[in-house]
Specification:
By secondary structure, the protein is of the alpha/beta class. The chain is built from eleven helices and eight strands. It binds 3-methyl-2-oxobutanoic acid.
C-alpha cells in the first residue's frame, strides 16, 4: 500500500540553503483555500497565514482580537490547498506571551489541527523562553522583529521602528538571540534598510523583510495589499501588482446592471 507524502517541497532547511546560494525567498500571506492554491501554484516559497487575517478577513482595526481558533480555521483552509510552499502560521496575541507552557500548547494545537509546517512569533528577548520551549518540541519557529503589530498599543503608531540607536542595538541583540534559540528565519518589519542589511549579514538564518529594504534574504507582503484589493493602505514599501479593487467593483457593478435589466441569465445560461 502506498501512502502519499504530505511533506511539502520547501522546507526550513531549503530556506537556509537559498540564503547560502544568494537565492531570494518569496513569501506572501494567504488565509483561504482558493487564494492559497493560486499563490502556491505561482511559485511562492513560503505562505504565511498571518494574523493580518484579523484586518483583511475579519475587518478588525488591529491584529489583537483574532483568536487561536480563528487562526486554525484559516490555516486548515490554506494547508488543504498547498502542495509546494512552506506554510507558516502566526501565533495570535495572548497565546504565547508570558507563559512558555501556554505558548507550547498553542503551537502544538496549530501543528496538530492544521498540519502546517511552522509557527511565527513576534518579539525578542521577552518571549525567548516560549521560543525555546516550542523549538524543543520539534516545532520550527520563525521570529518577527521591528514593527510587531501585536504591540501597537505599546508603540502607539505604525511608523518605522529602530531608528534610534538603543532600539536598533536591541533589535540586533534580539535577532542573534532568536538565531541561537533555533529559529529558522526572522521577519524584519518596517526598519531602516541599513539595519536590516546588517542583521542579514550577521545571521546565518534567512531574514524576510517587509518595509526593510532589498538586502533581506526574502520579502513578504500581505496578499490583499499587493493585489490592490485593499485600497486604504498605501505605505511607501508597498508595490501594487494589480488593481483588483477596481476590477472587482466594476465586475460586480456590471453583474448588478445585467440582473436588473434582465440581460442575465440569457437563453444559453439556463436549463
Ligand atoms: O500577519 C502578517 O501578515 C505578518 C506579515 C506582515 C509579516 O505578520
Amino acid at each position: 500500500m502506498s501512502v502519499e507524502s504530505n511533506l511539502r517541497a520547501v522546507t526550513t532547511l531549503r530556506l537556509t540553503e537559498m540564503k547560502q546560494r544568494g537565492e531570494k525567498i518569496a513569501m506572501l500571506t494567504s488565509y483561504d483555500f482558493s487564494m492559497a492554491k493560486i499563490v502556491d501554484a505561482a511559485g511562492v516559497d513560503v505562505i504565511l497565514v498571518g494574523d493580518s487575517a484579523a484586518n483583511v478577513m475579519a475587518g478588525y482595526e488591529t491584529t489583537l482580537p483574532i483568536t487561536l481558533d480563528m487562526m486554525i480555521y484559516h490555516a486548515q483552509s490554506v494547508v488543504r490547498a498547498v502542495r509546494r510552499a512552506l506554510v507558516v502560521v502566526d501565533l495570535p496575541f495572548g497565546t504565547y506571551q508570558g507563559n512558555s507552557k501556554t505558548a507550547l500548547d498553542s503551537a502544538v494545537r496549530i501543528m496538530k489541527e492544521t498540519e502546517a509546517d511552522a509557527v511565527k512569533i513576534e518579539g525578542g528577548e521577552e518571549i525567548l523562553e516560549s521560543v525555546q520551549r516550542i523549538i524543543s518540541a520539534g516545532i520550527p519557529v520563525m521570529g518577527h522583529l521591528g514593527l510587531t503589530p501585536q504591540s501597537i498599543h505599546k508603540f502607539g503608531t505604525y511608523n518605522v521602528r529602530a531608528k534610534e540607536q538603543a532600539e536598533a542595538d536591541k533589535l540586533v541583540r534580539d535577532a542573534h538571540l532568536l538565531e541561537q534559540a533555533g529559529c529558522f528565519s526572522v521577519v524584519l518589519e518596517k526598519i531602516p534598510a541599513a539595519l536590516a542589511a546588517r542583521v542579514t549579514s550577521e545571521l546565518h538564518i534567512p531574514t524576510i523583510g517587509i518595509g526593510a529594504g532589498g538586502a533581506c534574504d526574502g520579502q513578504v507582503l500581505v496578499i490583499h495589499d499587493m493585489l490592490g484589493i485593499n485600497k486604504d493602505f498605501s505605505p511607501r514599501f508597498l508595490r501594487r501588482y494589480a488593481d483588483l479593487h477596481t476590477v472587482m467593483t466594476e465586475s460586480v457593478g456590471r453583474y448588478v446592471a445585467d440582473v436588473k435589466s434582465c440581460d442575465f441569465p440569457n437563453e444559453k445560461e439556463q436549463y
